[in-house]
Amino acid sequence: MKLVLGEEQRQLQESVRSFLGSASPLRKAREGYDPQVYARLNGELGLSGLIIPEEYGGAGAGLTELSVALEETGAALLPGPFLATAFAAIALTATPDKELLSGIADGRLAATLGLPTGDLPACDGTSVSGRLAQVLSGMEADVLVTPATAADGGAVMVAVELTAPGVTRTALDALDITRGQAEIVLDGAPCRVLGARRDDGVMDRVCVALAAEQLGVMRAALDAIVAYAKIRVAFGRYIGSYQGVKHKLADMHNKLEQAESIVRYAAWAADEAPDELPEAAALAQAYIGRACFEVARDHLLLYGGIGYTWEHDAHLFYKRAKADEVLLGPPRIHRARLAELLEL
Amino acid sequence: MNLADYRRAARAWLEENAPHDDPPGTDAISRAKEFMAKLYDAGYSGITWPAQWGGQGLTQAEERAFAAEARDYTLPTYVFSIGLGMTGPTLVDRGTDAQRERFVRPLLRGEEIWCQLFSEPGAGSDVASLQTKAERDGDHWVINGQKVWTSVAHHADWGLLLARTDVEVPKHKGLTMFVVDMHHPGVTVRPLKDMSGRSNFNEIYFDNVIIPDEHRVGEVNDGWSVAVTTLLHERLSISAGVGMGGSKDHPASVEALRRVLDTSDPLVRDQLVELHIRSRALALFNQRLSQETKAGIFPGARGSGAKLLLAELTLFQADLATQLVGPETALADHPLAQALSMAPGMALGGGTNEIMRNIVGDRVLGLPPEPRVDKNVPFKDLKVGTQA
Fold it and tell me: Which UniProt keywords apply (chain A) (predicted)?
């Protein structure tokens, strides 16, 4: 088991962190998707191709490296389809498609993964119909990868170009103003069948990828409020010197320490120990979804009144944390999965 | 010898010499001493300690290799743990050559047992407010006062004692460190019965106990800096042991509880899931700290965070388990009743949860310290202990 980053992973972390620090500082988070930032992120740093196999033009790296990148995009509250594209890339590595994988790897394509909650869209082999109520980054993505029901009743993975006829996209008014969602209605939209939908750890990897973003969100929220506690004065003292504040921050730090340990473990399991992945992935979402929201909430509260204003960034973390916590379904599903895996 | 060979040799030695069972009996201390002597003679006691004073003069790498092998055994080294973990390293760091020559080798070989005498009834978290007096009388010192929470004192030959030598100066500036002979007739050791009914520590009374000046450690009134050295070693030895093994045998573990509970009840199942999540989160954090240490990243005060989490988990776990199992846990000899009685110990020993949060806040997060009202006040004018 490896819970500490290696030298190359630390370099990746440092380069993504310093790039985003200048190209996508927090004040840009509420301006929305900036394709120019993505062009550099994918071009200079090659992030979109990180986990895509080398034969499709990617770097062939693992979830450990992807987690490092997602932690930083999470910390920056990077707007746009980075996480959505990572989800789609994870799904596509299980049902590979040369055109899509190489398009994502070289940054030409942004993609998203359908996470239907009710009936799957119906696919007749060349076109697909159905409604996806909430698709992450659905307005920014070029391609939707989604499970669908084939004519023979089996489940398949299909790819749909989102500018094709038969596709209606409606931007939703999302709680998280830094990253959008869309309703997508498919009415005989042309699609390509990628293969049978297989239960081979795709959703587990999606859980781990999301947990990595959440780790970044909570880290950045904690860093921000710790910095503020060192400069804000009340009753003649820095507020960070009061135990009422200090002890809360210490508890938040402990949540962060445990969250980082779990993300490293789950990413290692995804790369090196597939037997341990299901439990590690469920643990990651069950622990970090909650921890991230609690840290974001307490960081907002510790700012006092200023943290409740629209102009302040605190609510961006609070809302991203909540949006992430419920992104893959009501959080109890992760606890139920853990119970099942532990054979309780 | 390269590290792999060292480790192989250590494994072979342990397999040959480590006790496979530990029969209860009155001669436990003499058997522990016999084992310690064998351990020392084989070169596995004081692995990183200076060779000049009786250590092996090797590196952390060898020590870690031995510790990794020793993890599979239960070595009877508990009575030596204060000496090996705290007082011994303090003497190596701050003692005189004569003190190192006299004390270190017998300590490492288990010939002499040590205890640490800092805390007092009126000075726990704020140990620098202690009141035990040391008064100079020619070439020796006279000690009067009381210490408390002293592990292994009833077996100890020597104690590392922090006492007040000047009440006219602020509290940190009037303390001096000594080595005290625990067999002196003025020393009275009384076992303290804790809330679990066990007696693992003691209170100690000093009634005109004499200490020769050559047993003073560090300068007069510079005892606080010596104590800081000891406390640093204490935290290292506690956090190094945090979360290591044994959890599966714990009566409040998920493994133990699932055997006695109806897990078809979704409420029971979800509470066990919560316990699993918290246990795994802390176990993985401890493993990460240990991997970081091996990679040369020193955990420092972050170990206090791990200790805080262990204390919280211990309390949560015993509380939850008694709720899940029900009325039978209200009987004193039920294992979960015992676990419940022992649980607060982890949150108090080695620093309370509040002190741990202060440490994480101050030293890990770099938050501003609290203003101190006692810093520049002469000790004699300071309120200490419990005031009505």
Answer: FAD, Flavoprotein, Oxidoreductase
Interface contact flag, A253 B360, Cβ < 8 Å: yes
pLDDT single digits (tens) A195-254:
999 878 999 999 999 999 999 999 999 999 999 999 999 999 999 999 999 999 999 999
Task: Please give, rounded to a whole number of angstroms, the shortest distance from the CA of A4 to a CA of chain B.
Answer: 6
List CB contacts (< 8 A) between A230 and chain B.
366-368
Which residues on neighbouring strands pair with residue A29, listed in sequence order? none
Q: What average pLDDT score do residues B183-197 get?
A: 96
The two tokens of residue A165 are: 């006829």
**Which fold, A111-196?**
Butyryl-CoA Dehydrogenase, subunit A; domain 2 (2.40.110)
Confidence of residue A161 (pLDDT cuts 50, 70, 90): very high
Rg of chain B on CA atoms, in Å: 22
Nearest to A287 among B254, B281, B358 (CB): B281
Nearest CB neighbour to A241, from listed B280, B291, B368? B368
- Give mean pLDDT, residues B322-334: 97
How far apart are alpha carbons A110 and A85 in whole angstroms? 6
pLDDT, tens digit, 9 for 90 and up, residues B295-311: 878 788 898 999 999 99
CA-CA distance, B244 to B250, in Å (whole number)? Answer: 12
User: Looking at the predicted structure, is the pLDDT value of residue B242 above 50?
Assistant: no
Name the CATH code of domain A202-341 (choices 1.20.140.10, 3.30.70.920, 3.40.50.2000, 2.40.40.20).
Answer: 1.20.140.10
Q: What is the pTM of this model?
A: 0.91
Q: Does B330 touch chain A (CB under 8 A)?
A: no
Distance between CA atoms of residues A215 and A211, nearest Å: 6
* Contact between A117 and A60 (Cβ < 8 Å): no
pLDDT value at B159 more than 50: yes
ipTM: 0.96
Q: What is the pLDDT of residue B235?
A: 67
Question: Where along chain B do its domains lie?
Answer: 3-108, 114-229, 242-364
B131 contact partners, CB below 8 Å, separation of at least 6: B120, B122, B123, B145, B164, B384, B385
Residue A85's pLDDT is: 98
- Say yes or no: A242 contacts chain B, CB-CB below 8 A: yes
Asked if domains B114-229 and B242-364 share a fold, the reply is no
Whether the CB-CB separation of A59 and A49 falls below 8 Å is answered with yes
Q: At what angle do helices A202-229 and A277-302 cross, to 10 degrees?
A: 20
What mean pLDDT comes out for the span A103-113?
A: 97
B26 has a pLDDT exceeding 80:
no
CATH 1.10.150.50 fits B242-364, yes or no: no
Spell out the domain ranges in chain A: 7-105, 111-196, 202-341
**A7-105 classified as CATH 1.10.540.10:** yes
Express as a percent the part of chain A with pLDDT over 70. Answer: 100
Question: What amino acid positions of B are annotated as catalytic residues?
Answer: 234
Residue B1 predicted with pLDDT over 90: no
Give me the total of CB pairs closer than 8 Å, taking one residue from chain A and one from chain B: 119
pLDDT for residue B23 is more than 70: no
> How do strand A155-161 and strand A127-136 relate by DSSP bridges?
unpaired
Cβ contact (<8 Å) for B292 and A4? yes
Sequence-distant (6+) residues with CB within 8 A of B222 are B176
Contact yes or no for A262/A317 (Cβ under 8 A): no
Residues 258-297 in B contacting A (C-alpha not used; CB under 8 Å): 258, 263, 269-270, 272-274, 276-277, 280-282, 284-285, 287-288, 291-292, 295, 297
- As a whole number of Å, the end-to-end CA separation of chain B is 63
> What is the CATH superfamily name and number for domain B3-108?
Acyl-CoA dehydrogenase/oxidase, N-terminal domain (1.10.540.10)
Tell me the pLDDT tens digit for each residue of A14-45. Answer: 999 999 999 999 999 999 999 999 999 999 99
